[in-house]
Amino acid sequence: MKDRVEYKRSKEIPGLVLSEARFSEFRFDRHYHLDYHIALVTEGVQRQGFHGETLLLTPGSIQLMPPGEVHDGNSAGDESYTLKTFRLSPELLNGLGEEISAQNRFPALGGAVLQDSSLAGHLSRLHDALRAARAGSEPLAEQSEWLTLLDRLFVQTRMVKPQFVKGTLTSVQWRRIKEYCDVHLAEKITLEELAALCNLERFHFLKLFKQTVGMTPHAWVVRLRLERACSLLSHTDHGLSRVANEVGFYDHSHFSRAFRQAFGVSPSKY
Fold it and tell me: Where are the bilayer-spanning segments (predicted)?
């Protein structure tokens, strides 16, 4: 199979570059990066020389490679391997440090390999979603998942201590969110917008929202869209495509799939 590699800058997360590669013959010579890498081998095995040791990266493993660390990489055998990488700029990493660790930057940036097939699977799916960047994609979902998964990753590798957020949103903050979503339901709603309404950082807002509502912001907004769709289907003669657009679903198949999952029937049978 011919080697291939693709790079894409994330539209939703400034400072993030995503790469996906399929290698069989290509070998990484000893090198280092100026940015921070989170790498996943999703198929096959990569052999890597790092700190005088040989590492075998397999599906289910997650590697954190800080700037300046010298390493190499190649296929561990005759078979090819697939590598997905999140490349975080120093500015992006420092910003995440402020949000997730409540400090100006991460206290430690050592290399690490974590074996966690569940987390690796979630990161791989997020990588795919960010690379796809479809017109109807949900920035609220992707931004929330990004912060949640990185928090989980950095806590497990002991780069940061778990941040316990107490309390709930105030009644004023909750009212602002509901009013804003009612008005802007047909538009893309971002995590930054909702957090700003409450004068909170995104990560802090995520924690408080779930403790207040019992759902993630994305799950709550999706349900609001579906409930609004039910009302339109019951009281108007709008076609399905128009209803989907009016409640913020830019893809008709996505609308139908979400509706069926929520109510057990397709929108056309409601």
Answer: none
